[in-house]
Each structure stands twice: as structure tokens, then as C-alpha cells.
Design a protein that fits this description.
The chain is mainly α. The chain has 10 helices and 2 strands. The chain has one domain. Strands 1-2 form a two-stranded parallel sheet.
Length: 239
């Protein structure tokens, strides 16, 4: 049993690392094609971001691997594969539930990480990326990585979700994590400034956080920022 757990954790760590390298690498390449010169002079910063991110991948891989083992080898999670196990309307509902809970956890732990002591100890690693790049998304101190690594795996024991919807959660998490940091807005202005866009976080919104620090703490949605008065709108540079 122990051998199976270790093997699964190591395999998931490799998968998380490769997912990071592939997604960040693709958007970094796209940035160099569409925004040439944007990352000029940032070679050392990018090397540091990759180093921190691969450490984070090992930390994220552990609870993800445990959840995978618990589902595949023990059936302990509430991940399901039969679409008929729950009504079809539950598929998008479970997706939104996972995203909202993750967003809620991220918002409050992110605000906590901006307290002076924790910022100096851990979160400053992420903000050392000036400006953020497509490689910044997982550039965390291990303490910060620990605060976020177990959220999605823990939810798989609590809230039933179809394996396909869980894949969507991970895809959205990866896409938004990378594109919100890459230093330019890839989504069209009509979407960013639409009614829907006013509730979603894109690069224009998150860039403002990296400029001002004390605002725009959310991950996917602007709900908590608006409720708590920490929404400061969009970065003038990107909006």
C-alpha cells in the first residue's frame, strides 16, 4: 500500500510539473510572438520563477496524488464516472461549487498572506516577479504552496463531481493562473468590460493587484473583492 501511494504521489508530481511547464511555456512563447520585447531583460527572474514553481509542483503533487490513490485504489473519494449517477444539471453546478469554494479559500488566504509578517516570510516570493510573466503562476514559497495545494483534493472527498468536470476545474485553474499573470490581456475588450467580465478575473484585474498589492485578491471571481471593498478595478496599463 505504501509503495502504491509513493508511486502515485511521485507520478502526480511529475504530471503537475509537466502541466506547468507546458501551459506556462506555451503562453510565454505566445507572448514572445504577439508581444515581442515584453519579457526582455527578465531571464534571471524567469529562471527563479521556474525554480520556485517546480518546488510548488512537488507540494501540489502530494495531496493530488493521495486523492488519486484514494479514488482509484480505495474508492474513498466522491469522484464519479457515470454521468447518469446525478442529474445533468448537477454537472455545471458541481463545477461552479468547486470554483467558488476554491476562490473563497484563495481570497482569504491571499489577504492573510499580505499581512507584513507573512508577506516577508512567504508571499514576497510571488511578488518578486516584477512584472509578472507567464511563468509566475506557480512561483510560490513552499509555505504559500501548502496553503493552496490541498483545497481541490480535499473537495473530492466532500462534494461529488464527475471526472470530466474535475478535469474542467483543473483546466480552468491552470488557464486562469497563467493568463492572469502574463502581463497582457489576451481576452477581447468587449468581454473584459462586459457584464460577465465585470465579475471575472482576467489579466487586467490581477495586474492591478501586482501594481497596488492591497486590492484585487480573488482567483476566478470578483465576488469577494466586491463584497469586502477590495475591488479596485482594472490596471490602466492593460485595460
Amino acid at each position: 500500500m505504501i509503495g502504491g501511494i509513493i508511486y502515485t504521489v511521485l507520478a502526480m508530481t511529475v504530471i503537475v510539473a509537466l502541466r506547468y511547464l507546458a501551459s506556462s511555456g506555451f503562453f510565454a512563447w505566445l507572448t514572445r510572438k504577439l508581444r515581442p520585447g515584453l519579457y526582455a531583460g527578465l531571464d534571471q527572474q524567469i529562471r527563479d520563477e521556474i525554480r520556485w514553481s517546480l518546488i510548488s509542483a512537488a507540494i501540489y503533487g502530494a495531496p493530488a496524488g493521495l486523492a488519486l490513490w484514494a479514488w482509484r485504489d480505495r474508492g474513498w473519494t466522491v469522484i464519479y464516472t457515470d454521468p447518469a449517477a446525478y442529474p445533468l444539471w448537477y454537472l455545471p453546478l458541481s463545477l461552479l461549487a468547486y470554483l467558488f469554494i476554491h476562490d473563497t479559500w484563495f481570497y482569504w488566504t491571499h489577504r492573510w498572506m499580505h499581512r507584513p509578517r507573512w508577506f516577508r516570510l512567504a508571499h514576497g516570493v510571488h511578488h518578486a516577479s516584477r512584472p509578472p510573466t507567464a511563468w509566475t503562476a506557480m512561483s510560490f514559497h513552499p509555505i504559500e504552496a501548502l496553503t493552496g495545494a490541498f483545497v481541490i483534493p480535499a473537495l473530492t472527498f466532500l462534494i461529488p463531481i464527475h471526472i470530466g468536470m474535475l478535469g474542467m476545474v483543473l483546466a480552468i485553474m491552470t488557464l486562469m493562473g497563467v493568463t492572469n499573470h502574463m502581463g497582457w490581456e489576451m481576452f477581447p475588450r468587449w468581454l473584459v468590460h462586459s457584464r460577465l467580465g465585470n465579475w471575472l478575473i482576467t489579466a487586467s484585474h490581477h495586474e492591478k493587484h501586482h501594481e497596488d498589492y492591497q486590492c484585487n485578491y480573488g482567483l476566478y471571481f470578483r465576488v469577494w473583492d466586491r463584497l469586502c471593498g477590495t475591488d479596485r478595478g482594472l490596471s490602466v496599463r492593460l485595460a
